[in-house]
Amino acid sequence: MMTDGRHGKLSPTGRAAPACVLLVTGMSGAGRSTALKMLEDMGYEAFDNLPLSLVPALIESIAADARAIAVGAGLRTRGFAIETMLEPLDAIVGRTGRELKVLFIDCDDERLQRRYTETRRPHPLAGDRPVMDGIRLERRVVSALRDRADLVIDTSSLSAAELKRLLTGHFALAAGGLRLFVTSFAYRHGIPRDADLIFDVRFLDNPHYVPELRQLTGRDVAVAAHIQRDPDLAPFLIGLWRLLEPLLPRYEQEGKTYLTIAVGCTGGRHRSVYVAERLAAQLGGAGLRVELAHRDIVQSASVAPGAPPTAS
Predict the structure, then answer these.
(1) Does residue 169 contact residue 143 with C-beta atoms inside 8 Å?
(2) pLDDT tens digits, residue range 197-243?
């Protein structure tokens, strides 16, 4: 680690999480109520769909005792009006000595339409028109709120566990510094939507084309040995660390509490897995709190027997 005056030193310590009021909003059907239940499990005083005229008095009455407050609001909330909602809410939160943060839960239109179709619930803005008309109108209505959000979480392809991980990473009440999440992924399955930093390792020699390595993963010794023989690996890892070492303390200084670093290759099975493992180990060795996952390692392994081989 660099310890001279040119760079911030990586450190697992940090400021205590400020007391906050979290406004949880977003597209109808995107998972706002699920997020609120998870926040409640994390220790937040959570309230959903209260008339917004009652929210200021509620915040003042419990601000002295509640560690953190989460208030859910959406189109079905009485008094929901973006242009007149945030300013008075921000003022009342400020008077309690807290900080107002806005979490916007989003989802792509096609998945929202599917969710409404499967549950047979009417969209609040659709009326007698198709569900998609209501979704598109709502997106225009809440666009300013999405722009104001401190964090947008897209649930289009998130599991419940992944949503909980993101909420815990960004809004955990325990004091602490920057928390890191390193994940490998396959470009053919799309870039992780919550990634803050993305590194492409498709330039490394691909073990997929070695028959005896194809069914193994980047966690296997034989695959690791193959990748380590690539002369471009060591310079890449050195350069990656030189980039991250001064960058991570700056994120923490700017108040960021959770950072997702994604490492991708074609199939998410060999190269990205190996590099993600190496990076997570190095970050952990520097004293940082880091989680590690391999998003597509199972999908890559589930190719049907006899299917044409695809690069990973």
Answers:
(1) no
(2) 999 999 999 999 999 999 999 999 999 999 999 999 999 999 999 99
